[in-house]
Amino acid sequence: LFKETEQGVIVKVQQQVNADSTGYQSPKLVRLQVVGEKIIHVSATADDKFADKQSLIIVPQEEKTPYEVSQLGDTITVSTSCIKANVLASTGEVWFTDSLDNLIVHEQNGGGKQFTPYTCTQTHADGTDETYTGWSIRQIFESPEDEAFYGLGQHQADEWNYKGKNEELYQYNTKISIPFIVSTKRYGILWD
Q: Rounded to an integer, what distance in angstroms lies between the CA atom of residue 78 and that of residue 88?
């Protein structure tokens, strides 16, 4: 179900949803990497392996944070002294708890991550075409009624609380996207 790495684990997701039948695909792999006592980097891919491109946001940490890996049935857990990241191997669903198992944040039941394949073609000045393929991702979290989300940068709408809202993150003229949100429940999420 999982393989330990130098910084955490890679979990092979057991149930696959195929893009041909639904328009989207579930992740094949989910990776949990310990960055600090209160930070665990979660990454997922619909490919057979991670691309591991150089991040423009994540700064490599020189000090290693101690952590433990455990498995209980279908759940693989990576724990530091302050936080636990859990992944359900059957669906790739991820959730975080504090050290006392109080829920911090939980992806939507059933997985919460959807990858949609895309292809685009760019025509160069010399008339040649180059085709690129990739994935667009959608991520959904469960959220109690009294929670609010702030951040995501500078946008032209009068939105402050992004709870229940959709926001496409791209840069354009006066739209400045910053892929970070802060919850009133005292946690933050940074998309890399």
A: 12
pTM, 2 dp? 0.84
DSSP bridge pairs for 40:
34
Q: How many CB atoms lie within 10 A of CB 5?
A: 13
Nearest to 185 by CA among 82, 71, 105: 105
Closest CA to 79 of 94, 68, 70: 68
Question: What dihedral angle (degrees, nearest 10) is formed by the CA atoms of 3, 96, 137, 166?
Answer: 180
**pLDDT per residue over 42-79, tens digit each?**
999 988 999 878 777 777 778 899 999 999 999 999 99
CA dihedral over 132, 133, 134, 136, signed as positive or negative: positive
